[in-house]
Amino acid sequence: MGATLLGDKGYDSNAIRKAAAARNVWANIPNRSNRKQPFAFSPWLYKQRNLVERFFNRIKQFRGIATRYDKDPANFLAAIKLICVRIWCASL
Fold it and tell me: How buried is 57 (Cβ within 10 angstroms: 0-12 exposed, 13-18 middle, 19+ buried)?
């Protein structure tokens, strides 16, 4: 299907790579320094993962999202959208 598993060095284990391969998923995980057989790794994809993680950290800076005051999923999604627009407008 072309799915990719993105993870940091903490997820570099044979068991995780085997489970991903069983589901026909490519594991883009950087190799640990002590790995004897290195696997294929795309630094560009890893940078994209970092951008997503930093964005989620920016969203979590807003207290209402971090503590999830809105229990209704529609209201929570609306709050996330408003925060995303606010972050996007601030970046312009």
Answer: exposed
Six token digits for residue 85? 């627009």
pTM over 0.70: no
Amino acid sitting at position 33? S
Residue type, 20: A
Average pLDDT over residues 43-63: 89
Q: Are strands 25-28 and 3-6 parallel, antiparallel or unpaired?
A: parallel
25 with 48: CB under 8 angstroms? no
Domain extents in the chain: 1-52, 60-92
Alpha-helical segments (H) within the chain: 14-22, 43-59, 63-66, 73-91
